[in-house]
């Protein structure tokens, strides 16, 4: 398409992003990570309030940028980061709704795979069904990071859906297939990364439980889901 940076979605200059970018959905969570964990921080994007920052963590360059809600928003930003800003690794640090009965609020899930009901994959005209999986190196490093930090975690399959308010209880059926939780962006990230030949991983925190009805507050989602942030940062 002949795209060059900056774009309609990312106003940063070429070279402004580090090779590794942490991506929460919430712009305020991106701001929280930058203000509380990074040194030498520079704000490099605020288009559509998708705040992005580059700084250092323990002396290593890292960026953080919000991706918004849903597969289209994630896919647009990840595509541009990979292909126009030469980013190599994107780690989604986002929220998810629990399905597995033994999950508790604030538990951390490392997404070994992402089932999906988004049509985003259709553009590639594949003759079969694509498996949306992360980069093994990032997955391995995330597990090592969690164990080093002493953070409990689950590794498994999640569901990425375009439907936040389903008309029936169809999402509950995924629980019987061992799906840990439901969210909206990880599969799109894995698809974009695969097409670009880059690396991706989803590290998720349970913000609510679809079966039990438990949920966290907006303030908790913004400011207290630090375990997944620290796991990701220790991977840089």
From TrEMBL:
Sequence positions that bind phosphate: 25, 29, 48, 92-95
Stretches assigned to the Nucleoside phosphorylase domain: 20-229
Record Pfam families: PNP_UDP_1 (PF01048)
Reaction equation(s) it catalyzes: a purine 2'-deoxy-D-ribonucleoside + phosphate = a purine nucleobase + 2-deoxy-alpha-D-ribose 1-phosphate; uridine + phosphate = alpha-D-ribose 1-phosphate + uracil; a purine D-ribonucleoside + phosphate = a purine nucleobase + alpha-D-ribose 1-phosphate
InterPro entries: DeoD-type, Nucleoside_phosphorylase_d, Nucleoside_phosphorylase_sf
Leader peptide range in chain numbering: none
Chain positions of site Important for catalytic activity: 221
GO molecular function terms noted in the UniProt entry: purine-nucleoside phosphorylase activity; uridine phosphorylase activity
Keyword Signal listed: no
Keywords annotated in UniProt: Glycosyltransferase, Transferase
Catalytic residues, chain numbering: 208
Residues annotated to bind a purine D-ribonucleoside: 9, 183-185, 207-208
CC terms in the record's Gene Ontology section: cytosol
One GO term of the biological process aspect: uridine catabolic process
Enzyme Commission number(s) of this protein: 2.4.2.1
Presence of keyword Cell inner membrane: no
Assembly notes: Homohexamer; trimer of homodimers.
General function of this protein: Catalyzes the reversible phosphorolytic breakdown of the N-glycosidic bond in the beta-(deoxy)ribonucleoside molecules, with the formation of the corresponding free purine bases and pentose-1-phosphate.
Family annotation (HAMAP family): Pur_nucleosid_phosp (MF_01627)
Family statement: Belongs to the PNP/UDP phosphorylase family.
Name of the protein: Purine nucleoside phosphorylase DeoD-type
Source organism per UniProt: Enterocloster citroniae
């Amino acid at each position: 398409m002949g795209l060059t940076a900056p774009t309609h979605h990312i106003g940063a200059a070429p070279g402004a992003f580090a090779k590794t970018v942490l991506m929460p959905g919430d712009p305020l969570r991106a701001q929280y990570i930058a203000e509380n964990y990074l040194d030498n921080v520079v704000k490099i994007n605020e288009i559509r309030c998708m705040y992005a920052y580059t700084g250092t963590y323990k002396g290593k360059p890292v960026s953080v940028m919000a991706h918004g809600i849903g597969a289209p928003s994630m896919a647009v930003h990840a595509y541009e980061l990979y292909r126009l800003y030469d980013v190599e690794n994107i780690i989604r640090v986002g929220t998810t709704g629990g399905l597995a009965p033994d999950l508790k609020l604030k538990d951390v899930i490392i997404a070994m795979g992402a089932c999906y009901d988004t049509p985003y994959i259709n553009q590639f005209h594949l003759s079969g069904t694509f498996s949306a999986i992360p980069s093994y190196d990032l997955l391995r490093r995330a597990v090592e990071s969690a164990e080093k930090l002493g953070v409990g975690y689950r590794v498994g399959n999640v569901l990425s859906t375009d439907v936040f308010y389903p008309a029936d209880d169809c999402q509950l059926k995924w629980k019987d297939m061992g799906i840990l939780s439901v969210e909206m962006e990880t599969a799109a990230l894995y698809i974009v990364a695969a097409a670009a030949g880059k690396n991706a991983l989803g590290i998720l925190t349970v913000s609510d439980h679809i079966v039990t009805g438990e949920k966290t507050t907006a303030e908790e989602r913004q400011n207290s889901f630090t375990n997944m942030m620290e796991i990701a940062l220790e991977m840089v």
